[in-house]
Design a protein that fits this description.
Immunoglobulin-like; 7 strands; binds copper (II) ion
Length: 141
């Protein structure tokens, strides 16, 4: 076996094992206008699926490690999935209920480097207090 072949084999194995290790986390829209998981701790490469178990909700990203390229916003009542590729914090809301505090936080690789950006997002008073609670929960884990 040539060296190049060996390297290629090892590379493929690493790629494959990464895919195998990637997890999918499911979050539901609850009947109480919340997300069933408000703070999700994940690793780079993991996927989150939002399941429309109750009507009238969606997922809209407000902040992430790369503010110029946030994950796409979902349509109401549709399943949505995002694979997270950058370490850091992602904040999202439900478009119709964001002001009421329907927010979710994703912590990728337990990395809080962009916490300041998250805290500078303009939110309603209720949403601000929810965000404060979520960031406290996130940092406890
Ligand atoms: Cu909602």
């Amino acid at each position: 076996m040539s060296v190049r072949c060996l390297f290629f084999g090892m590379f493929s194995f690493l790629l494959l094992s990464d895919l195998v290790n990637a997890e999918t986390i499911q979050i539901e829209f609850t009947e109480n206008d919340t997300y069933s998981v408000e703070v999700a701790h994940i690793n780079v490469g993991d996927k989150i699926e939002w399941l429309p178990k109750n009507k009238g909700h969606n997922v809209e990203f407000l902040a992430g490690p790369d503010m110029s390229s946030l994950p796409p916003k979902s349509k109401l009542n549709l399943i949505h999935s995002v694979t997270f590729e950058l370490p850091g914090l992602y904040l999202y809301q439900c478009t119709p209920h964001g002001n009421m505090g329907m927010l979710g936080l994703v912590v990728v690789e337990n990395d809080f480097h962009n916490l300041q950006d998250i805290n500078e997002i303009k939110l309603s008073r209720v949403a601000s207090s929810v965000l404060k609670r979520l960031t406290e929960i996130a940092q406890e884990n």
